[in-house]
């Protein structure tokens, strides 16, 4: 579904991604794990079109999206749940969800999808008139996921959904991710919490200072000594 | 007491004009963090478009206002595209200096094309009458200015609060990268913001014409600066703040003129700016957020 081939991304003179490659198969959960600053967010933002690679290509469902504008990429079916949730703090829960479906014109189907989000996250329905900034961290993460779902994505990019959440909530979020995947959405999950990520993923890539250093199925990586040493201490 | 109420009534229409101009400042600041110093001059262009619409096309004042709004909406979009967009990723001071440049360009281009003299706003388009209501003298021009300004503010509130475009504008001003990830086009949203802000300024320009009876190419400078004070007073970037700030400055000026000395009126307005920057730089409606690192 998504093939990234040898992309180089720079921030000014800093070489952030070096010949990075990645492949996501339709219907799977793929996780990209790595330490802080390894280039995980950069990778997602490059897929979303916010950053431009200097070399290399990004193919999505057989078409080259390397140079497509970010707002068009959302329209193609790739939505991102950004790091730190990034909900619109002084807009209500409903308005945030509406923004998620910004590109859609089908009013009825938008309403149905909003009901779907509410049934998945009953807390959001209770708080739908509340400003997003007044929600708890976990609720904001649910809103961010719900908002991304409103775009009817075929591929969902998730950037550290567990960040800053209590362990119990982390579990809940991960079971939600798994559930979204089981209903047909492909997921590329970026995580520092490698244990959790590998527990739900099919395939995994390990990134270190902008390069993929290891890849395999989730089981293989869970057993790998290198991964254990570097990422699975917790 | 009667005297005071009369002064307040007089101040309302002036305040409404400042509020309309301040809205454009604050909306643009909210979305691209730029103090658009050319905004007062867009108002001036609006006043001239209204003037020519009345004198050359023979339209009435309402149509003149609509034409001025349409022309200035387009002008605002062009200014953003030509002058500010290329500088979007450069330093703030670069855009600020550019804004001053655009301001001077509009002023002196108008002088070059139309001459520096003031033009009398035709009173055929608006015949001023005074009504006596409960001992207060109410001018129809004040009512016209106040009612149309408040009407436009209500329309704006509706757009911002309930329409998709308005919500997108809020989303971009809150977090433009997150907005991009929703598929919102930031460029289009910024253009819309300039169009709306400039249209409001144009309406204010026509109102100034009616209110003072005369217009000139440099008329945008002082009201522009005062509207800027109003926007800062209310909290720059905050829409209700701009409205309240506009009315406060308008009322304050009228009171100073009525009870003190009209020569001090500008000093008092700018004194308010100094005071607010000293005491509460985020403005009446602003919250202290602190810079996020």
Which pair of protein chains has the largest interface, and what are the residue counts? Answer: A-B, 25 and 16 residues
Give the low-confidence spans of chain A. none
Number of strands of chain B: 4
Give the overall pLDDT of chain B as a whole number.
92
Number of helices of chain B: 11
Q: What class would the helix/strand composition of chain A place it in?
A: alpha/beta
Helix/strand/pairing class of chain B, anyone?
mainly alpha
Q: Mind summarizing the main beta sheet of chain B?
A: 2 strands, antiparallel
Structural commentary:
The complex is a heterodimer of chains A (234) and B (293). By secondary structure, chain A is of the alpha/beta class. Chain A has one domain (2-231): 3-Layer(aba) Sandwich (Rossmann fold), CATH 3.40.50. Helix content of chain A is 38%, strand content 27%. The longest helix of chain A is centred in the last third of the chain and has 16 residues, at 167-182. The model of chain A has no long low-confidence stretch (mean pLDDT 91). With 293 residues, chain B is mostly helical. Chain B is 72% helix and 4% strand. Chain B contains eleven helices and four strands; from the N terminus they run ααααβββααααβααα. Chain B has helices at 2-32, 39-55, 61-84, 92-114, 140-162, 164-174, 176-181, 186-212, 221-234, 239-259, 265-279; strands spanning 119-120, 130-133, 136-139, 214-215. In chain B, the strands form two sheets. In chain B, strands 1-4 form a two-stranded antiparallel sheet. A two-stranded antiparallel ribbon of chain B has the order 2-3. In chain B, a hairpin with a 2-residue loop joins strand 2 and strand 3. The radius of gyration of chain B is 19 Å and the shape is globular. Chains A and B meet through helix 2 and helix 3 of A and helix 6 and helix 7 of B.
């Amino acid at each position: 579904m998504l093939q990234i081939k040898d992309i180089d991304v720079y921030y000014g003179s800093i070489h952030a991604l070096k010949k990075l490659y990645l492949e996501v198969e339709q219907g799977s959960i793929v996780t990209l794990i790595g330490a802080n600053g390894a280039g995980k967010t950069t990778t997602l933002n490059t897929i979303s079109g916010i950053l431009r690679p200097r070399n290399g290509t990004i193919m999505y469902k057989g078409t080259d999206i390397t140079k497509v504008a970010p707002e068009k990429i959302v329209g193609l079916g790739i939505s991102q749940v950004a790091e730190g949730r990034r909900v619109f703090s002084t807009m209500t829960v409903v308005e945030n969800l509406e923004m998620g479906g910004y590109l859609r014109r089908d009013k009825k189907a938008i309403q149905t999808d909003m009901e779907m989000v509410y049934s998945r996250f009953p807390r959001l329905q209770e708080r739908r008139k509340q400003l997003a900034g007044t929600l708890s961290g976990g609720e904001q993460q649910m809103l961010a996921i719900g908002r991304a779902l409103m775009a009817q994505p075929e591929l969902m990019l998730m950037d550290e959904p567990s960040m800053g959440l209590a362990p119990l909530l982390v579990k809940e979020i991960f079971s939600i991710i798994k559930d979204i995947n089981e209903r047909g959405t492909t997921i590329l999950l970026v995580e520092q919490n490698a244990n959790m990520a590998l527990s739900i993923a099919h395939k995994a890539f390990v990134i270190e200072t902008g390069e993929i250093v290891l890849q395999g199925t989730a089981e293989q990586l869970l057993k790998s000594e290198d991964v254990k040493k570097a990422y699975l201490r917790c | 007491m009667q005297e005071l109420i009369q002064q307040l009534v007089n101040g309302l229409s002036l305040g409404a004009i400042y509020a309309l101009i301040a809205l454009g400042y604050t909306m643009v600041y909210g979305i691209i963090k730029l103090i658009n110093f050319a905004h007062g001059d867009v108002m001036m262009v609006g006043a001239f478009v209204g003037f020519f619409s009345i004198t050359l096309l023979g339209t009435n004042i309402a149509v003149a206002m609509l034409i001025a709004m349409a022309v200035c909406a387009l002008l605002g979009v062009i200014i953003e595209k030509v002058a500010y967009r290329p500088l979007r990723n450069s330093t703030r001071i670069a855009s600020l200096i550019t804004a001053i440049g655009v301001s001077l360009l509009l002023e002196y281009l108008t002088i070059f094309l139309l001459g520096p003299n003031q033009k009398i706003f035709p009173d055929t388009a608006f015949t001023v009458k005074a009504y006596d209501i409960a001992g207060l003298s109410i001018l129809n021009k004040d009512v016209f200015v106040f009612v149309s300004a408040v009407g436009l503010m209500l329309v704006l509130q509706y757009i911002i609060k309930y329409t998709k475009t308005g919500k997108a504008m809020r989303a971009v001003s809150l977090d433009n990268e997150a907005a991009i990830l929703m598929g919102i086009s930031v460029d289009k949203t910024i253009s819309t913001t300039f169009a709306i802000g400039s249209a409001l300024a144009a309406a204010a320009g026509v109102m100034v014409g009616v209110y003072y009876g005369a217009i000139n190419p440099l008329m945008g400078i002082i009201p522009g600066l005062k509207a800027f004070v109003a926007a800062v007073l209310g909290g720059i970037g905050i829409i209700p703040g701009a409205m309240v700030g506009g009315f406060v400055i308008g009322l304050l000026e009228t009171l100073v003129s009525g009870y003190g000395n009209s020569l001090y009126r500008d000093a008092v307005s700018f004194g308010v700016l100094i005071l607010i920057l000293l005491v509460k730089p985020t403005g009446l409606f602003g919250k202290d957020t602190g810079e996020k690192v």
